[in-house]
Amino acid sequence: LRLVESGGALVQPGGSLKLTCVAPGYTLIHYAIGWFRQAPGKEREGVACIASNGRGLKYSSSVKDRFTIFRGDNTVELQMSDLNAEDTAVYYCATYLGGGLCPAGWHSFGYWGQGTQVNVSL
Fold it and tell me: pLDDT for 73-99, tens place per residue?
């Protein structure tokens, strides 16, 4: 199992962007999936998580009300809006290794993709 992220781009402050996570050859519906990001010089942080049933959602305080995680046709999407410079980072998706529900923390995720770069700048 290997996840692949796409959709990263350069976007102006206040703009929107949608990221996509896929797992070629696998069905993502069986897994809780998380989106993470890592900015230069900072630790990786959890951003959003969606349970396998699509109804359990979790967001970090820094993106709540601006980002939306949802499931597509064997994809997990991250719709980002009202972007600002602090959202600049490499974004990753990963599977939760402990079952179909999102965990209380942001640990025990695996099968990381290689990431997609999001730059928010004028």
Answer: 999 999 999 999 999 999 999 999 998
